[in-house]
C-alpha cells in the first residue's frame, strides 16, 4: 500500500528540516571549537613594530626599579638569578599590602640584588641587606586586592628599617617574600571580563606578571602636559620604541625576541602615576592622571561601570608558549590577525 503524496512530502520536509538543523548545529559547534582553540593560539604571521628600549623589574612592589640588559621571562615574571619581579612586598601589621599610593616615599627605596642578597638603599639611611636564600619559616597568607597570597617574613631588621624610612616609626611595616616558583593567586572578579588565565597573576603585582608601554604614546601624552613624564612613572616591564602613538591598543599578541606574550587586559592607571620617581612627591595638579582622564577612558559602558574614570595607558601581558630570555634592543613583533572560517554549512 502506498502512502498519500502529502504524507510523503511532510516526511521529506521533516527529514530535510532535521538535516538542516543538524548541519547548523555542527557549524555552530565547529565555530565554537575553532574560536576556543584559536583564543590562546599564537598567530602564524608577525610584523615588526619596534624594538625594546627599556627592560625593568621591580623586585619589591612599589619600591624602585632594577634595569638589566637581559632577563629571563618566566610564568611568574621577569627573573635574573635570585632577582624576581614583584616577589617581595611591604605589608602592614594586619597582613595587607602597602604601596606608594598611600606612602609616596616608597619609590625612593632603591633595590639591588647580588647573588641571593637583596640590598635596600634610601636617602639618609644606611643600606639594609636581606639574604633571600636564608628566609625560612612557615608561609602565611597576605592580602593583595582581597586575594590571599603566600608569604614568608623577612625578619625584624628590615621591618624596622622600612618602618623608620616610610613611617618615621620603629614598627608598623614588614617585608615579605614569595617562596613559590609559580603563580597561585585567584583572579580578581573584574579581570574575568578579559583574557586572563590563573597563571597570569604573578606573585604580588596588582594584575599580571608583565606590563608593556609604548614610548611614543608617552611622548604624545607629554605634548599635552606642562610637566613631562617618563615611561618609568607607569612602572612597566617593557618599553617599546618605534611604534605609532596608541598603536598598542590594537595589539593582541606580542613577541619580544623569541618570547611570546598575549595582551590580557588594558592597563588602567591610578594615583601612583602622579608620583615623581626621583623625588617621591605627588604632582600638585594630579598629573598626568588628570590629563589622561580627558582622552583615555573606556568607552564601553560595561567596562566604564567596572573601572569608572580610570584611564588606560599600556596593557598587561600573559606569557604564552614557554619561558625564554629577552634583551634590550630585541625586535618587537605583533601578531597579524588571521582570517576566520566562514559561517556557512559545508556543501
Largest sheet: 7 strands, mixed, barrel
Could you give the order of strands across the largest sheet?
A: 1-14-13-17-16-15-19
Tell me roughly what share of residues is in helical segments: 10-25%
Number of helices: 5
C-alpha geometry: globular
Q: Beta fraction of the residues? A: 25-35%
Radius of gyration: 25 Å
Strand segment tally: 19
- Average pLDDT works out at 88
Computed structural class: alpha+beta
Distance between the termini: 36 Å
Descriptive report:
19% of the residues lie in helices and 29% in strands. The protein is of the alpha+beta class. Strand 10 and strand 11 form a beta hairpin. The longest helix has 35 residues. The radius of gyration is 25 Å and the shape is globular.
SSE blueprint and pairings:
Layout: H1 5-39, E1 46-57, E2 66-67, E3 70-74, E4 77-80, E5 83-84, E6 88-92, E7 110-114, E8 117-121, E9 128-131, E10 140-144, E11 147-153, H2 156-167, E12 173-177, E13 210-214, H3 215-222, E14 238-241, E15 253-256, E16 259-268, H4 289-292, H5 301-307, E17 312-320, E18 324-327, E19 331-335
Parallel strand pairs: 13-14
Antiparallel strand pairs: 1-2, 1-14, 1-19, 3-4, 3-18, 4-5, 6-12, 7-8, 8-9, 10-11, 11-12, 13-17, 15-16, 15-19, 16-17
